[in-house]
Write a structure and sequence with these properties.
The protein is of the alpha/beta class and 146 residues long. It is 35% helix and 18% strand. The chain is built from five helices and five strands, in the order βααβαβαββα. α3 runs parallel beside α4. The two termini are 14 Å apart. The mean pLDDT is 97. The chain binds 1,3,4-trihydroxy-5-OXO-cyclohexanecarboxylic acid (DQA). The site of 1,3,4-trihydroxy-5-OXO-cyclohexanecarboxylic acid has 10 residues, from loops.
């Protein structure tokens, strides 16, 4: 079972960016932790990050063909709140998809309360820091092994 973990804009700045919101760890730190957790739970992982909306759409489109993924964990950053293109890309792919956020977006500014991706995902996990990614991997495993 393979999970494609996709991170969107500004998540490459973790560790330097708004540490009081997103913590001290870099994206590389978090990816390593998620990969180890997933492996311990019988899942392979591959990681992709881009600041570009089109590249994120392509990663989602190619999740099955190129990445051979069985599920997608997606932190689309601010694109979550307005990218209908990314929402449509998710609708093209018929594998489990989980939207994640490091912060609790519902406890933050109002524009972050809206997701235009969630309707095309199996579910949403937010507010648990790096653990949001791990919980999403487990959620996908549960869907696929039910
Ligand atoms: C985020 C929340 C988004 O609102 C924000 O734009 C991000 C990160 C999170 O992981 O908490 O870039 O997706």
């Amino acid at each position: 079972m393979k999970i494609l973990v996709i991170n969107g804009p500004n998540l490459n700045m973790l560790g330097a960016r708004e540490k009081e919101v997103y913590g001290e760890r870099t994206l590389a730190d978090i990816n390593a932790e998620v990969a180890a957790f997933a492996a311990a739970n019988g899942m392979d992982t591959e990681f992709f990050q881009s600041n570009c909306e089109g590249e994120l759409c392509e990663a989602v489109q190619q999740s099955v063909s190129r990445y051979k993924a069985d599920g997608i964990v997606l932190n689309a950053g601010a694109y979550t709140h307005y990218s209908h293109a990314l929402g449509d890309a998710l609708a093209c792919v018929r594998i489990p998809k989980v939207e994640v956020h490091i912060s609790n977006v519902h406890a933050r500014e109002e524009f972050r309360h809206v997701s235009v991706l969630a309707r095309n995902c199996s579910g949403v996990i937010c507010g648990f820091g790096a653990d949001s990614y791990k919980l999403a991997c487990l959620a996908i495993k549960n869907i696929l092994t039910k």
